[in-house]
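Dock guanosine-5',3'-tetraphosphate; give full complex structure.
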Amino acid sequence: MDVQWYPGHMTKARRMMQEDMKLIDLVIELTDARAPLSGRNPDIDELAKNKSRVILLNKADMADERLTRCWEDYFRKAGWKTAAVNSRTSADMKQIWQIIMEASQEKLERDRKKGIQNRPVRAMIVGIPNVGKSTFINSFAGKASAKTGNKPGVTKGKQWIRPKKGIELLDTPGILWPKFDDPQVGTRLAALGSIRDEIIQTEELSLWVLDFLVKEYPGMLSGRYQIEETQDKTLLLADIARVRGCLKKGGEPDYERAASILLDDFRNGRIGRITLERP
Ligand code: G4P
């Protein structure tokens, strides 16, 4: 499948990220819990190499809970502070706050040794487009949190918000570019809806999704659409078209419309909680 991120965007995103890195102590990286590796760009490891780090598995409400636990273990074993989160609610934010404080301990200790007291931890949210950065900032910071305004000595125009005493968050998240070295990455991100629809082939993608569901989550498709599961993906799509009334003149299945319905259901967690990759 042909999905691309233009080099011009990437260069600009990288440059902005490098500038913002100078201002912060802590990087809070969001990835998609449904594809935690495809949903992150490992270049951030180099860009943020001297910073405290947290990785959050966002949209965990739509991911396979068992695999989310495996991914949490995976990242923890690799030395990260990590948690699964649903950014659409504020329920998980207390735990996130604790993890952020744990990740900041080293910086606070360094400050103490230098005799610096009460300097807030400065943090930035980073992640690829659509991973939920703005949603997370809203839930974590809340509407009531104070904007701190421009600071002398800090690049003009930067806005900080103060979700709690002791932490300041850059109000514009850092945009990471997806990394498409492995063609499967583009396909997974497209399936999750993280890549704009105009540049992907809906029908081809829907066949990929059907194949994945039949193999990895047997029973889900029949549960959602009351159709019989078979290895023949085109037949499955035709069945979805039929049960959803997507028929052309003459009764032919409208594959394009059925594919759109399937993808929309899949992306919004209506077929079930799924994770596209395993640690
Ligand atoms: P970005 O800043 O990283 O680009 O992403 P943004 O916050 O705009 O989120 C992209 C979409 O993902 C939004 O949906 C948002 O509601 C959804 N989202 C973010 N975090 C979560 C989460 O933890 N769980 C679920 N289920 N969804 C999440 P949208 O359809 O584009 O907009 P809307 O439906 O919120 O209006």
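Observed: The radius of gyration is 21 Å.
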